Amino acid sequence: MNQRFILEISNDLIIPSQSFKPKVTNKKNYGRLVKRLKHKFRLNNIILQKTDKSKVFHLGKLEDFRKKSKEYMDKTRAYQCLGTSDPLPDLIQRTNKYLLDLRLAKWITQKQYELLCVNQSEAELAHLYYLPKAHKLGTPLRPIISGLRHPTIKISKFLDDLLRPLFNEMAKQTTIESGFALAAQLDRWSQRRLTKETLFCTIDVTDLYTMIPQIEGVLALKKMLDYLKMKQVQGLK
């Protein structure tokens, strides 16, 4: 990035803080400062972002950011740019129709149907954004999906409440949830299994959620229910 540009930005940020003025004047100066910074960012094709896992901000070239975003989207094939199209109304209609079909087939109760139905005035499409990992070489981007008001979010939470306790119970012998539990487990292992040659490894799965095929994911859930010998969960088949 251009060193002169960085110096100009630094001067803009430092100068207003050197003198104390009344609140009204400070507010006006702050507004002018923000406008000036935005103009310089646009002029130099610079993007300012909060970083991942830190309290600092990152200045980067807009073309680099777009390139990394395109590479991620091409790799996962889980996202697409919508442009001017708006699939939200159709998604709401199809989700509500699917829920109605489940209700008419008596696979869910009336209370569950009302709980899961999508309110058009409250729903909005999920969107993808990134936080730069400034602490890593090459400043890769951490993808984040904001979907708290997505049409299917109620269904997701409903299924999570049903299935997560089952999985937690099944995996509790191999799950460690705190540092204290880890220390206790290591103490137990040290009495039987740990040796000087024992290696501890960590595994970082890249893009886990977008890489799981839907069909295989459903089959994995069925396998879990078969293992637990469950034909239904809280009345749901």
Task: Give descriptors for this structure.
4 strands; mainly alpha; flat; 9 helices; two-stranded antiparallel ribbon; 9% strand; 237 residues
Which stretches are low in confidence, meaning pLDDT under 50 for 5 or more residues running? none
- Tell me the number of strands: 4
What is the succession of H and E elements? HHEEHHHEEHHHH
Q: Major sheet: order of its strands?
A: 1-2
> How much of the sequence is in beta strands?
5-15%
Mean pLDDT across the residues is 85
Number of separate domains? 1
Query: What's the story with the biggest beta sheet?
Result: 2 strands, antiparallel
- Helical content stands at 40-55%
- From the spread of the alpha carbons, the general shape counts as flat
